[in-house]
Design brief:
With about 150 residues, the protein is an alpha/beta fold. It is built from seven helices and six strands. It has a six-stranded parallel sheet. The longest helix has 13 residues. The two termini are about 15 Å apart.
Length: about 150
């Protein structure tokens, strides 16, 4: 089993120490998701994590830092998936500099997942359950739908 943890959108006081502890305890992948963080903020964050763990970090933003920190991959958000020559070139450049880089993505509809032609190392489905903190986020997938679709994705 692979354990994957996604960061809080905001950095908390003891977060970095907790992340390092999880890596030491065997955490496979840590998704560094700080949507409002500047490049400088993320550099400061990554500088505090021992380089031996960088291969297990997946960046959700500031993908250009992937090579400098030799992270394990990038997560493609909505703005990274827009069809443009600039985005195509950035992805191509990253793949050339980090050939073993993982690429991940989130899907909010099964139809989009099934129609997708890109190859990802893994994907997230969201929201699977009723939202606790965001009441407006209803469960997006029934158990019945998931049990029919998931075997087709292998």
């Amino acid at each position: 089993m692979n354990l994957i943890v996604i960061s809080n959108a905001k950095t908390t006081t003891a977060e970095i120490d907790a992340v390092i502890g999880m890596f030491r305890d065997g955490l496979n992948h840590f998704h560094l998701r700080k949507p409002k963080a500047s490049r400088k903020d993320l550099e400061s964050y990554l500088d505090q994590i021992p380089a031996e763990f960088h291969q297990r970090i997946i960046l959700h933003s500031h993908h250009a830092m992937a090579g400098k920190y030799q992270v394990g991959g990038v997560h493609l958000g909505r703005r990274h998936r827009k069809k443009s020559m600039r985005n195509w070139w950035r992805k191509r450049k990253l793949k050339l500099s980090l050939p073993n880089m993982r690429v991940t993505r989130s899907f909010h509809r099964l139809s989009r997942l099934l129609d997708n032609e890109e190859v990802f190392n893994y994907v997230f489905l969201s929201p699977v359950f009723e939202g606790i903190s965001k009441k407006q986020h209803a469960a997006g997938y029934s158990e019945r739908k998931l049990s029919r679709v998931l075997p087709r994705l292998k």
